[in-house]
Design brief:
The protein has helices spanning about 35-50, 60-70, 135-140, 145-150, 160-170, 220-235, and strands at about 5-10, 10-15, 25, 50-55, 90-95, 115-125, 130-135, 155-160, 180, 185, 190-195, 195-200, 205, 215, 240-245, 250-255, 260-265, 275-280. Helix content is about 20%, strand content about 25%. The chain has one domain: Clavaminate synthase-like (Double-stranded beta-helix, 4-Layer Sandwich). It has about 290 residues and is of the alpha+beta class. The two termini are about 30 Å apart.
């Protein structure tokens, strides 16, 4: 379904950022939203994949309360602790502590059960720069040629968080991370996911590999793996598959982790940038049915 600008959908007013991807939700106060309004937000999130809310007054408590109304919260991260003892669910992305996110990635795909979605709040912004970009993995899949879709539908890939978080786990956490899906994380073993993920609510297919955490394609040569991944990364991040958000104080963004990848621009020099993120518990990624 495609919406026109400022069209009211199920009680929400959406200002789309593209024909079928991304939208600003106009005039909704997340702190006082009704259950019906948040149910509409949840439905719009699946449909539009990324939603933005301007002028919100949320603090850490309010962000956590909002997340609990939208789904089941995870801890902040499998390895990185919460922002403080009172908010173990909040992951602080702080440029003063190497928090940049300047590589295309989908959140926490290096775990067997990655989060369903993320809610990000601007806490401290540079005067300019630090925009975030999202790519629509379903639109990218749909625009692949049929022979390439036929190939990648059959593939699986390994996702490994060691490069990004292995040192943190070993040196800053003493080898003991957080409790994720009922188990304390003590090491980051690579996990296998389908290259193409079928969305559990819509049945749509999307590209589910990312440069941040995908190490290689399973069952092919190193050269073939690099070529396939390079093709998919280049295609996923074509300009027509991307929206870009310029942050303002009070902004909140939500995205569906099952159908997007994102990248935060690191173009603000030594200026301090802090964002607070929470994540909603997801499911184990499923690939296309293999009928042959």
């Amino acid at each position: 379904m495609t919406y026109t600008s400022d069209q009211a959908i199920a009680g929400l007013t959406l200002d789309p950022l593209g024909p079928a991807f991304g939208a600003e939700v106009v005039g909704l106060d997340l702190a006082t939203a009704t259950d019906a309004e948040l149910a509409a937000v949840r439905a719009a999130l699946v449909d539009r994949k990324v939603l933005f809310f301007r002028g919100q007054g949320l603090d850490d408590d309010g962000q956590v309360a909002l997340g609990r109304r939208l789904g089941e919260l995870t801890v902040s991260h499998p390895v990185v602790g919460g922002v403080d003892e009172a908010h173990p669910e909040i992951y602080a992305i702080d440029s003063a502590d190497n928090g940049f996110a300047d590589v295309w990635h989908t959140d926490v795909t290096f775990m067997p059960r990655p989060p369903m979605g993320s809610i990000l709040r601007a806490v401290n912004l540079p005067a300019s720069g630090g925009d975030t970009n999202w790519a629509d993995s379903q639109l990218a899949y749909d625009s692949l040629s049929e022979p390439v879709r036929d190939l990648v539908d059959r593939l699986t890939a390994m996702h490994d968080g060691t490069r990004e978080f292995g040192y943190y786990l070993a040196q800053r956490r003493g080898g003991k991370g957080n409790v994720w899906e009922g188990e304390t994380v003590t090491r980051l073993d690579p996990v296998e996911h389908p290259v193409i993920r079928v969305h559990p609510e819509t049945g749509r297919k999307g590209i589910f590999v990312n440069p941040g955490f995908t190490s290689h394609i399973v069952g092919v040569s190193d050269a073939e793996s690099r070529a396939i991944l390079d093709l998919l990364y280049a295609h996923l991040t074509k300009p027509e598959h991307i929206i870009r958000h310029r942050w303002r104080a009070g902004d909140v963004a939500m995205w569906d982790n099952r159908s997007t990848a994102h990248y935060a621009n690191r173009d603000y020099g030594s200026t301090h940038r802090v964002m607070h993120r929470i994540t909603l518990r997801g499911d184990v990624p499923a690939g296309p049915a293999r009928g042959r």
